[in-house]
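Support request, please re-run this one:
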Amino acid sequence: MRTVGLFEAKQKLSELVDCAREGERIGITRRGKLAAILSSAPPETSLKAFFEDIENIRKRAKLPRGVNVKNLVEEGHI
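Re-run finished. Output below.
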């Protein structure tokens, strides 16, 4: 893990974010002590995929009149 001081991190933030996106972990120090770690974000697909799955369930399900997926989720059935 590469470490940089806070002042340097502020000057090179865009470059550091690009490095983190490529998988490098970067430690940011304040007064010589590790204060934070910059790393890549998890993929964004999880929440979108979750809602797509719910929509697919809704399309396939033959629910009784007055019952919807939102109610089933809120009641803990899905």
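The mean pLDDT is 86. The radius of gyration is 22 Å.
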